[in-house]
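[09:14] KT: can someone run the structure on this one? pasting the chain below
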Amino acid sequence: MLLDRATDSTVPFWDALTTALSLAATYGQCRKKVESWYLWIATDVVYVPLYAHKGLYLTSLLYLGFMALCVAGLLGWRRELAGRTGPAVPVEAAA
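[09:31] RB: done, structure tokens below
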């Protein structure tokens, strides 16, 4: 509502949504939550057409690149977590 009434934004809901998703994703990244990558991807899915709608095609292209980086980050984190949580070795067998 604030963006609608206090700014000249032509798409206040989408601007607010991307801001809220970005803040939540940043919080998740600080907490090292894998789910934060999904939030970043969802945010970029909104940003790309939003910037294209506003005529900011290069910025839209930039966010496509950010989305690719997010997918790479998600895959990397998941791969690393899978490597850490491999089969557990009983303490007796390890000794």
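[09:33] KT: thanks! The chain has five helices and no strands.
[09:34] RB: yep, looked fine to me
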